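Our consortium's second objective concerns turning raw sequence data into structural hypotheses that experimental partners can test. To show how far this objective has progressed, the report includes one record in full. It was chosen at random from the queue rather than selected for favorable results. The single chain below, 346 residues long, was entered without modification.
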Amino acid sequence: MFKLVFGFFLALVFSLLITPLLKLIASRLGILDKPGFRKIHSQPVPFMGGVAIYVSLVITLLVLGGRSNDLVGISLFGLAFILFGLLDDAGRKMRARYKIGAHLIFAAGLVYFTGLHFNFFSAVWINLTLTVCFITFMTNSMNMLDGMDGLDAGVAFLASLFIAILSFNSGQQELMLIALAVMGATLGFLRYNFNPASIFLGEAGSTFLGFILAVLAIKLNIYGLWDIALALKIERIQLISFIVPLIVLGMPIFDTYFVFANRFLNNIKFSQPGKDHSHHRIHLMGFSQRSTVLTLYAIQFILGLIALAMIRADVQQFFSLLAIVAIFFFGFTIFLSQVKVYEQGK
């Protein structure tokens, strides 16, 4: 247990020390996020914060976690997401379809290298396909959510906190080590990324956080839900178990669904950049950046608490909690949709 907790502090210290160095390097190389239509900041801000998180996390895992296939795979394919994202951060923009294609390839590479995949169905190819698609989805969801100082890193910190608790409950020590290391790396980065931020994650960092959160969610098993699975005559526990990490990741999942649904209803291209995300709308209500981000932190925290409550619930309680989450999604959708962000006629 000491080693696991030490992993959190080791990643935290590395992140606190490495982030200022990456900030300096990004400034010297001109890898900056410049002000623009979709930007809230008024001065150029260095990217490469994601590199600091990646380096802090990987050093911690390789020092304390050994050389298991999963840890090596996370390191190698996490690096692929970082390097590919740095191309965008450095100004070499690519179409969304090419980015998603690359993310699918990296996700498939991880699945092939580690053997990590869902166990939903008897047909293995369906499980593999769903695994690759989920990793790609979360990668892009976290990238889309990254629109305010400290938002992505804070959500990742809270999500990994609850996954660490859940993995402790299920006795998954390696998973707990990864989650605690993510917590330390993101918390150290938040020292420089919370409003007013002096460094941003960049596409490299946001996609990497989505990647690592997806891996944590896939690896998590909630064995305490066997009674519910048996009551529903479901033979594979992960079909029920996976609902819990989905709720833990509810904030980026909601934002992606919300943006795509609204763009579909307003005949706007899904790939078109815009200020129509959940955080943009809350900000337009008159909330400051800090208040907006703290509000979304609170929602993320509540979703985490609901996920914790589900692991000890009976069938009735389980579906009652699930209904609460569904009502929240529906209510928050209606509430945020009242904020007008599209031009008339679009």
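The partners drew two points from this record. The mean pLDDT is 90. The CA atoms of residues 167 and 220 lie 6 Å apart. Both points have been shared with the crystallography group to help prioritize constructs.
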